[in-house]
Amino acid sequence: MTPSIGNNITIMADIQGKISKLFPQAVFEEGQTLTVTIPDAQWHELAKTLKEDPELSFDFLVTIVGMDWQEKGMGCVYELTSTRHNTHIAVKVLATGDRNKPFVHSVFDLWAIATVFEREVYDFFGIIFINNPDMRRLFLSIDWKGYPLRKDYDADPKLNPVAPFENERQSDFTDTYVELPDGKIEKRQERVFAEDDFVVNIGPQHPATHGVLRFRTAVDGETIKKIDIYLGYIHRGVEKICESLTYPQTLHFMDRLDYFSGQIYHHGLCMAIEEAAGITISRRAQVIRVLMDELSRIASHCLFIGTYCMDLGATTMLFYTLRVREQILNIFERTCGARMTFNYGCIGGVMQDLDENFVKDVHDLLDVLPKNIAEYNKIFTGNVIAKNRMENVGVLSREDAISWAVSGPSGRASGWACDVRKTDPYSIYGELEFDEVVRHEGDSMARFKVRMDEMEQSARIIAQLIDNIPEGEYCVKVPKVLKLPVGSWFKVVEGCRGAFGVYIESDGTTSPYRLKLAPPCLPLAAVVDHITEGSKIADLITIGGSLDYIVPDIDR
Amino acid sequence: MPYEAWKDNEYIESLVKELQDSGTNVIVGTLDNLINWGRSNSIWPLTFATSCCGIEFVSLGAARYDMARFGWEVARASPRQADFMMVAGTIVHRMAPVMRRLYDQLAEPKYVIACGSCAISGGPFKKSYHVAMGIEDIVPVDVFVPGCPPRPEAMIYGIMQLSRKIKVEKFFGGVNRQEKQEEFLKNHPVPGVND
After folding, report:
1. If I label A35, which of A99, A392, A439, B77 is the partner at 20 to 30 A Cα–Cα?
2. What CATH number has the domain bearing residue A135?
3. Are residues A348 and A460 in the same domain?
4. Nearest by CB to A322, which of B59, B100, B132?
5. Is residue A64 one of the residues assigned to a domain?
């Protein structure tokens, strides 16, 4: 399954040869992945080649990492993956202009998700993307002073106080920066909605948005014309806080992003740090981590099914699914000591050894799980109302799923085989037998069924491992003061909702220079506008629920 | 739960003593008891959750913890129908005005429970540039439930503390709560309210 390292090097050399022929200015660095550094002037052209050349075809933009290299200027790191060739590349783009107004050319015309990713970079770093049609701030209010992730950001709370008694100022216009033929950059304003649009506000306090998410919805009768998504109602600035913490201290935030994938996110960040520090963890710790990952996947999908059915009016399902979830939380609690924020993974392995009853408890769970899944199907999946509300509602094509970076179960429901456990097997996933659940309908029903089937696959993985947990130490010795060498690392794991990426840039000290968390839920929320266009307003709940985004994961 | 099992009886006793300083009228006092009995056994929460604590609140509503036993199960989506607001999760700059507005929309008598360390003090996000360090500056809080997130048992304990507070309330005559709120509004003037 795993591409051999020798093979990987030849592929990298091929890509490098091809790019350097077309773009002589490009500078290459070889590491785990090939990194290309290019000035902004050639960036759009290079992006077009990377995306459209059939031998390269980097069609999946994983994330855009904004960077402030201080005296070396500002810029972005684009993490790209080719879904056809399963190759990865990182492109570093240096912004032009001075610190007050850095510019980078937008690539929104190549990857649809770039519109939102670029807005995020603009919000945090103040890098302006030329031609991006929507250059508003994404998480912070329009009156926010400063760009928080810049190294010289003034964090004085007096500059940006909490103002609970004033409503936030809002604008009906977006900014666009257009490059004129003579090279000058002009700022233009455009309306978000047409002047005679009827706009309904949904959220942030709404039971069906699954958290504090806000949609400004333009409707024509009952048909949705456009959705303008408002984020940042739970933006907590985790990435900035991490820059002032040591590596082990950054771990606990992973439980508080997507709080259902806490174990998996821990796994991702630990793996990135371990790889950077050159720590090899024991086989026992690997098995424990994978067991915990899959248990939390089942627990997460259980809660998804429950709350989704509740959104569609079937309240009873929540009580059925939470029964299994509580059973899993019991298992977690006995080993980790907490129900939700486990903080169980640590650098070098896991925090504590397994509970003595762990194997028995998991066997009890595996015994009841198939019966429960059959029961869920009996109660809900075949139900006429459920079918009418879910089938052919919110269809997302495979191309759009890739372009919008909709990974995870939602992407697999659109026929995109994007399971990181299969495409880039990390930890011990390469040795395990399980099927990647892929469906091709792309509608809400498919997204629901993929998760249902994934629970069975997770159970299959657990069943393979539970009786042969190897002996050994659960945590290897790591230096008390952990310093990473200078460099950057990018790791992706398969969270419960999609590919979760961790980008670490280290300057050789005990805390990260930049820690970027690429959450799967931001694309899931961003694609809502695209999927719902032309559907009825009642279907917004069905579609939003089936995507299963977690708002603290979007906002971080 | 037996009275002796509570750990903070002194506090409630001092509260009762303070309230009954000027004596209690037999008729009005009995009426108060009746109203408080009704209110304290049917406090309806507003479904208001921003992050992790909200999921524990969902667990609280499900079969294992079953808050329906206590008469709290009617979680309302509209603040106009709810009695108390369980602030479950971090409140950030952008959310603060929204939360304040929800509080203003709650019908009297209204109560607030600050649930989890984020709502109490900012919690693990103390160093953040975009987190309100505790909701006490935004709305008056009746009960604090510590934890990150608090276990459902802790939430039950917290809401039971709230019912205890409601049980000693005086509806007629000296109303302790409204004084507190007026004081609060004096210190935090809201444009358009009480002008």
Report:
1. A99
2. 3.30.460.80
3. yes
4. B59
5. yes
Asked if the C-beta of A158 comes within 8 angstroms of chain B's C-beta atoms, the answer is: no
CA distance A190 to A173: 5
Q: A234 to chain B, minimum CA–CA distance in Å?
A: 6
Interface test with A, best of B47, B48, B51 (most A CBs within 10 A): B51
Provide the whole-model pTM. 0.86
If asked whether residues A158 and A261 sit together in one domain, one would say no
Q: Residue A178 falls within a domain, yes or no?
A: no
From B59, B96, B124, residue closest to A164, measured CB to CB? B96
Chain A residues 80-139 with CB within 8 Å of chain B: 139
| Chain A residue with Cα closest to B151 | A339
Measured in whole angstroms, the distance separating CA B92 from the mean position of its chain's CA atoms is 19
The ipTM, to two decimals, is 0.83
- Residue A212 placed within a domain: no
Least confident piece of the model among A4-13, A125-134, A537-546, B163-172:
A4-13
CATH code, A258: 1.10.645.10
Residues of A in contact with B190 (CB under 8 A): 165
Which residues 119-158 of B have a C-beta within 8 angstroms of A?
Answer: 124-125, 127-132, 137-138, 148-149, 151
Express each pLDDT in A407-458 by its tens digit: 889 999 998 888 888 888 888 888 888 888 898 888 889 999 999 999 999 9
Domain edge (last residue) among A117, A143, A171? A171
In this structure, are A493 and A371 located in the same domain?
yes
Given A162, A236, A318, which is nearest B90 (Cβ)?
A: A236
Residue A183: strand, helix, or coil: coil
| Angle between helix B9-19 and B152-167 (nearest 10) | 20
Contact B195, B185 (CB under 8 A): no
Last residue in a domain, options A153, A171, A189 = A171
A205/B98 Cβ within 8 A: yes
B8-172 is a CATH 3.40.190.10 domain: no
Which residue type occupies A456?
Answer: E
CA distance A91 to A76: 8
| Cβ contact, residue pair A232, B99, below 8 Å | no
CB contact (8 A) between residue A164 and residue B124: no
Q: What is the phi/psi pair of residue A121, to 5°?
A: -65, -40
Which residues span the domain enclosing A28?
5-171
Specify the number of domains making up chain A: 2
Comparing alpha-carbon positions, the chain B residue that sits nearest to A316 is B62
Mean pLDDT over the full length of chain A? 86
CA distances in angstroms from A307 to A43, A303, A375, listed in the order given: 44, 6, 16
**A77/A479 Cα distance (integer angstroms):** 30
Whether residue B21 is predicted with pLDDT greater than 80 in this model: the reply is: no
| Touching B: A residues 480-539, CB under 8 Å | none
User: Which residues contact residue A360 at a Cβ distance below 8 angstroms, ignoring those fewer than 6 apart?
Assistant: none
Structure tokens that stand for A358 in this block: 């762990």
A223 assigned to some structural domain: no
